[in-house]
Amino acid sequence: MVSANIFVLLVIQLSVQVIYAANECQFTSDCGKLEKCINIQDTACVCKFGECVFDGNPFFKNNDCSSYTDCACSRTPDSCFCRDGTCENVAWECRTERDCNKLNKCKSKDCRCSTYNTCEPYDCYTETDCYTGKFFCSTLTDQGYSCKCSKNMCEIVQSNPAPPAPPTPPTPPPPNPVKIVAAPNPECETITGRRCVFPFTYKGKTYKSCTLDETSNGKPWCAYETQRDGNAVPNKWEDCDSSVCQVAKACLTESGPDAGNSCKFPFRFNGQTYNSCARFTWSGQNYGKYWCSTMTDRNGNHVNGQGNYGFCGFCENSACGCGCNQSRIQGAAAAQQDTNIRFGSGSQKAPA
């Protein structure tokens, strides 16, 4: 009889633990309040079916699949996912936004499917929502940045530090999209003589001069035709004539998984915000170099698990924000900095 009672108590205790774990969170933002999700590194803590789990590896990406249909488990799509090029026979919350409509937590609000295959609420409908919701971009106004509501996500844009005025009611769009060539800057032309249009917007970022962002040949470029909303018309861009155009400085990665791409400042990693390249503190051949993120999420966090980082050539480019003297960090200060690192899995190392 005593053994039976002990067995019943153990079953009840385990059941309570399972219920508690399944109710740790509703959305990923809830996980940031848990002790196990604070100060983790090289991984993300996301909300999956009510439980905060670790996910993502910035140093590993496989090539086994590009879609769940490439996987052996494709006949059970609800529990078959292709994540970071690896087939997983494990259920996640969503593959598309339509999957989120099936979850109770999204019944009373609009949800999207995040890059971690979790359903997350829309950040915003207007720019004002980014400030009232106290998103990460709203904390950077004293550093010359502001918020932009793009595809219902709050993004960081460089602008005046003051919050934007309340938006005016939108005007109905024309029956057919109208391509407009805005008043060009007569002093800046492309290498074929087309006049650059400033400002222009590309992938949610607004440019007022030629840019090196996402350049494929290392040369600055501009849009010479824009749509009514200011977005660059696809394929209507060319390299700038550097003899007559002003070029915005950019910090480009010179080596690493995403070499040749531009750094995304500011970016957040391991609970700290960086406005310049950060010191690489893992052991190995890259120890002591400076690195930056080349892709961030809507809150400015470095996107892990996809190799979106590289090492800065900061000695030749002041736009990287860290002078050569910073590479001379020595002695106890550097050693103490390294001992404060806490890894997400405890076994992951820097890429060779």
Task: Give a written overview of the molecule.
The chain has four domains: 10-60 and 91-121, no CATH class; 123-168, no CATH class; 175-248, Seminal Fluid Protein  PDC-109 (Domain B) (Ribbon), CATH 2.10.10.10; 253-337, Seminal Fluid Protein  PDC-109 (Domain B) (Ribbon). It is built from four helices and 20 strands. It has helices at residues 2-21, 97-100, 127-132, 331-339, and strands spanning 44-48, 51-55, 81-83, 86-88, 111-113, 119-121, 145-150, 153-158, 179-180, 200-202, 205-207, 221-223, 226-227, 237-239, 253-255, 267-269, 272-274, 278-279, 290-293, 309-312. Helix content is 11%, strand content 20%. A four-stranded antiparallel beta sheet has the order 15-20-19-18, with no helix packed on it. The N and C termini lie far apart (60 Å). By secondary structure, it is an alpha+beta fold.
